Amino acid sequence: MMNYAEVSERATALQDQIVAWRRDIHQHPELGFQEYRTAGIAAEQLRSLGYEVQTGVAKTGIVATIGEGSRVIAVRADMDALPVNELNEVSYVSQTPGKMHACGHDSHTAMLLGAARIFAEMANELGGEIRLLFQPCEETEDAEGKSGGQRMVEEGALDGVDHVIALHVASDIPAGKIVAESGYIMAAADSFYATIKGEGTHAAHPDLGVDPIFVAAQIINAIHGIRARRIDPIRPAVITIGAIQGGDANNVIPDSVKLRGTIRSYQDDIREKLWRELEAALALTRGFGGDYELQIVKGCPSTYNDPGVAAALRGVVTDLYGAETLVSNDPSMGGEDFAFMARKAPGAMFLLGAKRDDVHRPHHSPIFDLDESVFHMGTALLVSGALKLMRG
Ligand SMILES: [Zn+2]
Ligand SMILES: [Zn+2]
Q1: pLDDT at 222
Q2: Per-residue pLDDT tens for 74-129?
Q3: Which ligand is nearest to the CA of 106?
Q4: How far is the CA of 108 from the centre of ligand 2 (A)?
Q5: How many Å lie between the centroid of ligand 2 and the Cα of residue 153?
């Protein structure tokens, strides 16, 4: 039976191959639900390693299984890129203007392919089933409002899974440091689209209509008051209005104003309260003689790291790299659609610090990049973590 130190040695030996996969995928970024080439590379590798491979899951995703037994541990990577124009001057720069792997999902796919090799080398001693999930479209949703992780769950990719793990690189955490916290790590991320309806009229005679810009000003205040006055101060929540549109002349009062925004929270009861409070804030339009329409589009729920699974991950980090490798990190109000999987089977996502240099390279920015030298750690931890969970 391969022990964790041997897993780590194998991962280190695969380091150059993992970087090569990452650079190839980085040069050929594909947006959500269009990951045909990326999934093709993964499927070919997995088949050659002896996995049973199912393609076209959640449109462009892959489920690959190896090993047999009643216990099933799933390991997930996402594959999609972003509509960002890369500004890095590197040999592996994106070859497609306007598309870029600006969140590191290229490296997630590459590290999971590395893990796939190591699992295949111990196929007969896994003690259960390893299920690799290469999911499409983590960053956004399709026309039906569904992300790749949500579709994977709906199509049964997580059925029978005991635990699911995943990693996310972090361009702002020192290279080689690991975060594997218990509890909420990412927020539920819902969107809203509101129309404040007034009654258009001459700008010199606002009393003859209902000015939706004036009404919007009151509503925006009310919305910003929800977090401050209507939600338990010790529970995380935020509503941001990211867009406002209305009117197009200096001397015309328009008919309506549109607001768009995002709603973030951790606990489900707070999430639902935010929806109700948003509705109540918009209902104030009626007191001013106007009206409203509100559409709340539910995104991913909050990501909750199961304490037992997170502790198992921290255990293998300590065994392999020493306790000083673990760092703590504040939970984020960002969203992550691994949440759907972690709600289907108790799971956890760990962060792999991969800060490249002294430059601030935020995720989703045109200069996002990673320190590739730590990729072997991601591969080793995905394998060791899955083995530890398999053994219970
Ligand atoms: Zn992202
Ligand atoms: Zn991401």
Answers
A1: 98
A2: 999 999 999 999 999 999 999 999 999 999 999 999 999 999 999 999 999 999 99
A3: 2
A4: 9
A5: 18
**Averaged pLDDT score across all residues of the chain:** 97
In the chain the domains, ranked by start, together with CATH numbers, are 4-186+302-391 (3.40.630.10), 188-297 (3.30.70.360)
The C-alpha atoms of residue 38 and residue 30 are separated, in whole angstroms, by 8
Q: Within a 10 A sphere around the Cβ of 89, how many other Cβ atoms?
A: 7
> What is the CA(207)–ligand 2 centre distance, in A?
50
Q: What are the CA-CA distances from residue 173 to residues 55, 108, 338, 381 (Å)?
A: 34, 16, 20, 17
Whose atoms come closest to the Cα of 168: which ligand? 2
Can you tell me which residue has the tokens 């199509």?
155
Q: How much distance in Å is there from the Cα of 106 to the middle of ligand 1?
A: 11
CA angle 82, 11, 312 (to 5 degrees): 85
CA of 335 to the centre of ligand 1 (A): 8
| 137 C-alpha to ligand 2 centroid (Å) | 10
Which ligand is nearest the CA of 362, by number? 1
pTM over 0.85: yes
Instruction: Quote the tokens at residue 95.
Output: 């070859």
Ligand 2 centroid to Cα of residue 46, in Å, is 23
139 C-alpha to ligand 1 centroid (Å): 6
138-149 per-residue burial string, b: 16 or more CB within 10 A, e: under 16: bbebbeeebbbb
129: left (phi over 0), alpha (psi -120 to 50) or beta: beta
